[in-house]
Amino acid sequence: MEDIILWLKYLFLGVVQGATEPIPVSSSGHLIIAQRLMGMPQNGLSFEILTNTASLIAIVFIFREDIKKLIVGAVQYLRTRDQQYRAEFMFVLYIIIGTIPAALAAVLFKDRIEEVFASVHTVSIALLITGVALWLIRNLRGRKRDGDLSTKDAILVGLAQAVALIPGISRSGATVIASIAVGMKQETALRFSFMLYIPISLGGLVLGASDIANDPNRSELAIPYLIAFITTLIVTYFSMRWFMGVMAKGNLKYFSYYCFIAGTLLLIFL
């Protein structure tokens, strides 16, 4: 019976991770809240890496055609310098530039950030901040398409992704907000945000491989981790598809309402 309860808890954690990773409400913050509500100790880095990898697989699958087009176009431009492929090459270059701030922050400060900020109180404040940011950009409709981006845009969005290392600050929220704030169209903002997610998640997987291999709970929690992984994979796919529809309609204000309500309730009751 205890095993079943444990499996259900990890199933729920998978649902939470999968549902909140693509949308601007902070998956890391919601996992902290979920574990607190279920009386679970915070899982180690290996669990975070596994669930993030599951979300990554789902998002790569959804954007597979965009990824293929960018890679083929960038390679063709490097080989031929044909201007028809320059937009793809520059988009890839801006993804690389935008990844650097978060990559450096993760390598240098991630453990310290999680040690200092991994509390429900911090998550509640961060959710309120996210809500304010979403409210401020709710009516912005940019003009910049994929081929109109600049190095400055990439750096600013990259810095926003670095700030999202703080639990409760949504990675997708921070990058989408920053992308829209610098003038990107909704579709471009969405694509750029999740293209930035791919290299940073791959880097986390590579750097954290040893943590997974050396996890003392690996054997004991193999089945719960697998349950969480599969659940995260499936739920992320449907959550991402839903969020793409929300972005197309420009309804980000509803996420700001959620962040305001959730942040306030957490401050009052937890």
TrEMBL record:
Transmembrane residue ranges: 45-63, 89-110, 116-137, 189-210, 222-240, 252-269
* Topology within the bilayer: Multi-pass membrane protein
What does the UniProt keyword field contain? Antibiotic resistance, Cell membrane, Cell shape, Cell wall biogenesis/degradation, Hydrolase, Membrane, Peptidoglycan synthesis, Transmembrane, Transmembrane helix
Signal peptide location? none
Q: Which InterPro entries match?
A: UppP
Q: Which family does it belong to?
A: Belongs to the UppP family.
User: What is known about what this protein does?
Assistant: Catalyzes the dephosphorylation of undecaprenyl diphosphate (UPP). Confers resistance to bacitracin.
Q: What else is known?
A: Bacitracin is thought to be involved in the inhibition of peptidoglycan synthesis by sequestering undecaprenyl diphosphate, thereby reducing the pool of lipid carrier available.
**HAMAP family recorded for this chain?**
Undec_diphosphatase (MF_01006)
Name this polypeptide is given: Undecaprenyl-diphosphatase
Question: What species is given as this protein's source?
Answer: Paenibacillus illinoisensis
Q: Which gene encodes it?
A: uppP
